[in-house]
Fold this sequence. Notes:
Blueprint: H1 15-19, H2 34-64, H3 67-71, E1 77-79, E2 83-85, E3 92-93, E4 112-120, E5 126-130, E6 140-146, E7 151-156, E8 164-169, E9 183-186, E10 191-199, H4 204-214, E11 218-221, H5 234-239, E12 241-242, H6 249-254, H7 269-279, H8 288-303, H9 305-325, E13 333-334, E14 340-341, H10 352-361, E15 371-376, E16 391-395, E17 410-417, E18 432-434, H11 435-439, E19 451-456, H12 463-467, E20 469-471, E21 477-484, H13 488-491, E22 501-502
Parallel strand pairs: 1-12, 8-9, 19-20
Antiparallel strand pairs: 1-2, 3-4, 4-10, 5-8, 5-11, 6-7, 6-10, 13-14, 14-15, 15-21, 16-19, 16-22, 17-18, 17-21
Helix pairs in contact: 2-7, 2-8, 2-9, 2-10, 7-8, 8-9
Amino acid sequence: MASTRNPGGTSASHPAQVAAFSPAHPDLANGAAVPARVASHHYAEALARVIYIWGHPLVNTFRRTSTWELMKGHGPGMAMGLFPGSPKNHMGYVDDYLPAAQRKIVTPNNDTIYGACFADLGEEPIVVQTPHDVPPGHYWTIQIVDAFTTVTHQLGSASATPAGKYLLVGPGWQGEAPVGFAGVLRSPTDVAVVMARSFAARTPEGKAQARAVLNQLGATPLSEDRPGLRKFDCEASARNKVYPPDLNAEILAADPDILRTRPVHGETFWDDLKRALDANPQVSPDDAPMAEQARTLLALRDSTPAWKALLDRAALVADNELFAGARYEQVGTPVGNGWQRQTNGGRWGSDWLSRAQAAVIYIYVNDFTEAAYLIRGTDAQGALLNGRYRYTMRFEKDALPPVDRARGGFWSLTMYDKDYYMLAESPNGRHNIGTVNLDANELQFADDGSLTLVLASDEPTSAAEKANWLPAPRDAFALIVRAYVPEASILDSSYALPDVVRQR
Length: 504
């Protein structure tokens, strides 16, 4: 068997396409060539802005592979003490929810414990392991996405994936899986991301169960494979906190905002895109035509300072517009009572705008049949949500989000600040509310069977409202309902979440 990169398709191999951007006779008298030059400039600028939207998730993913160097020689651990990190083609873990105070990763869930592997399949395939000992009804998944964040494989309790080892290979791989493997999984790009999630209730017993399942999920290079199933160790990974030379736990605790850096920047977009494309010379059929256009623009940018200036400016504009517009109050389609959802989440196809928006607000979403993400940033009157006010959500009797509990399904409503981070300190310890609270009998239902959740920065006064209180920041905030293993009524939007109603 072999795994090789295709060396073709670099940005320097498009001279004919680059020449086509310049008029054939640029020096005609009386400015006769000016319209042709203007047309070329406008076309290049428009194409560059589309390429930015198309390429944003690719650059976003590739920039995150910087953890390869940070974790090299350290083994799987917690990069910067905050999130799963590992050397290339290995999986790193946390052993609890991501810290609420972190300001690096936007919109993490507060439902599952994570493992993450950034793979370079051009170097070699990796072994993806699924668990053999899972309690009935426990949710777990291994989500595999390509370099553009499109879900290529979704293993887990929802799809009843058998236990075993699977070989994840890149587009240039040829051969057969070794004896004892359950199957071969193919990625359309050499860079792939493998995300493991194991549901964790908030009790010590619930978290122990989550870790026990997570310790059976993992990814390792094929060259390190051994007969039988491997036992991983998320607790040891969580203890292995690795920091860059100029950073440590004390500095981060004093100033978490140090890590508020975007993975994608308009100023460096083209250089980052070239590196990302060089690392992924083959892409999916949906992305291949745009990849060729991108390589042409990269060659055009290298041709003259004038073209470089034009394309750099276009990327800056597109970058600003994407980040300004990718907001919870704007993204997705209406699905009732003021909520929105990206109905094709994870399966983006050629919907490059939705894919880029998702990369900004909640990158690496699961396949939409695995988990539905319903978001909003406004109240029932269309005003932005703000913690200076008090809001309620009233679920009528038997109208909680319908999920398949037998396959591990659960739901949660999570509170984020205006920048899509959790409250650093929650007055009652809650960052979300949902199935775990119901299972623990923490919520109070009315006599008629309804459930009213209270969203506010100030603590309610009555015992019932305190039981159902999800604290909000004292500024703008946003909400997301995650419905894992959703039933059909969520997917076809015949079920509608209750509206968010301002009380005062």
